[in-house]
# Entry
Amino acid sequence: MNVLKIIYLFGLLIFLSCERSTDDDQAQLPDSHNPEDCDFQTSAPPFSGTIFIDPDIITPNDPTTFTGLSYIGTGTRTMYDRRNGGGWVTLTPYLFRANYDDGLEIEVQVNPEFGSIENAQIQADKYAPVIGRLTTELRKDVETVWIHKGFESFGGGNNNLLIYPEWSLEYYERQGILEETLVHEASHSSLDADHANDKDWLLAQKLDCNFISDYAKQHPIREDIAESYLTYLAVRYRSDRISSELKMKIESAIPNRIKYFDNKKFNMHPIQ
# Structure
């Protein structure tokens, strides 16, 4: 083998080894993608909030894992209520057990202000099947649902979903985004604790050097997971339901967060 051929093969070997950088090999990223160069203050999120971007990500016609609801009496419970400035209250709510086909169950606690078992059950019957359209991953840490009267927005966290039916009718159901809103709130209960401070998630934030929404940008630890996850669900599992323009906006804004979620292999039943 002549000298020129040896030099050529050696150079080809070096080239091929450089081309084999893995997804985990962040050191291979060009300097322009150095996460330390990111200035979040100059970023321009594509949305104000993500629950409003499309009402068809999950719809009432989609399958639910909900299998049944049973009344289990009343009992003393500590519940959070946003009304009157917000605070913890100890009540004796009507209690229902909602069961789902993946073995999960949720205790639905309906404020006694609804006045009767029948009125309380109307609320439990309404929301338990809707919650069942969320994936197993999103429901796995949801232990309770609190339902109060009043005109307040939903909430998530504390292994709970906080629901105000009057607000739901006016702001969520009229826009067709009840399910999308519950995806956001369930993300707080089932995803935040494991992922919001994960080093790989924080690196993905820096590599994207942007947020999916103004809301996420304003609250990068508290809201970024919940705001981003719904859009991930849209592009990975509902791309046939959203416009190509919307898909492109999401993928351009948070490609590394999407990759992060991909790597987690979430349980997507009943969507997949």
